[in-house]
Amino acid sequence: MPVLRLAARTHPGWVRENNEDAYLAERLPGDDRWLIAVADGMGGHRAGEVASWLALSTLRERVLAGAALAEAVMAANDAVFRRQAGDPALSGMGTTLTAAVIGPGGAVELCHVGDSRAYLLRGGELARLTRDHSLVEEFVRSGALTEQEARRHPQRNLLTRAIGTEATVPVDETTVQLQPEDLLLLCSDGLSEAVPDAHLAALLVTTAGGGDLAARVESLIQAALAAGGADNITCVLARWDGEES
Ligand code: MG
């Protein structure tokens, strides 16, 4: 039996009244597959919550119906775009979406739009599996900004791609083969902006060789809160334990 352990948590942070983040972390019914996802909604009033919830519920429905993950992400885009186009109160809403389906052999299919991230911790090394679709990320890649300058840039939250803001959106796709004891982390920018990668790696490494996954998620949330908790914080953590008899 393939075993994937999951833990997830979201926290509104100390500043925001609403939590516009949402996540999925589940074993798909009747199937040795798992679905994990993080969405970070944006828009006035409650629109951000509508966007992230609608994106995740559409994604889940489509994956359960047998759609490929990228197709399900595009369906989520369509659903959010149509909803906001049909309701002036929701006009301008959108969301990030980072999602993975993990198959019975540990094969990960990963799709993302926006600046919610996926990381892989393997053998003590933390690697980013996603590239932020944000203005500052483009500046960093072109050499105009350093990583450190990007973290403080006033326009660091400006996305170059989001779910639901245009009729169609390009979806980044990648695949990874998990190895036993690998940790896969999906998170919103409430974590990645507050806690630098090196600190994330340290928090994950200290508990990598087993132990309580939920406690590890808690330590990530606490680190983001200790750094100010300026945004909603969401973490989904998966550990591949390989086949167990
Ligand atoms: Mg956020």
Describe the structure.
The chain has seven helices and eleven strands. The protein has 245 residues and is an alpha+beta fold. A hairpin with a 2-residue loop joins strand 7 and strand 8 (125-128). The site of magnesium ion has 6 residues, from helix 5. Magnesium ion is lined by residues 40, 188-190, 231-232.
How many individual helices? 7
What series of H and E elements makes up the topology?
A: EEEHHEEEEEHHEEHHHE
Number of strands: 11
- What Rg is obtained from the alpha carbons, in whole angstroms? 17 Å
Pick out the low-confidence regions. Answer: none
Question: Approximately how much beta-strand content do the residues carry?
Answer: 25-35%
Can you give the helix content as a percent range? 25-40%
Q: What is the 3D form? A: globular
Task: State the end-to-end CA separation.
Answer: 6 Å
Ligand list = magnesium ion
Sum this structure up briefly.
This protein has helices at residues 47-64, 69-85, 135-142, 147-152, 189-192, 197-205, 213-226; strands spanning 2-11, 21-27, 34-42, 94-95, 97-102, 107-113, 117-122, 125-128, 172-177, 183-187, 233-243. The protein has 245 residues and is α+β, with helices and mostly antiparallel strands. It is globular and about 55 Å long.
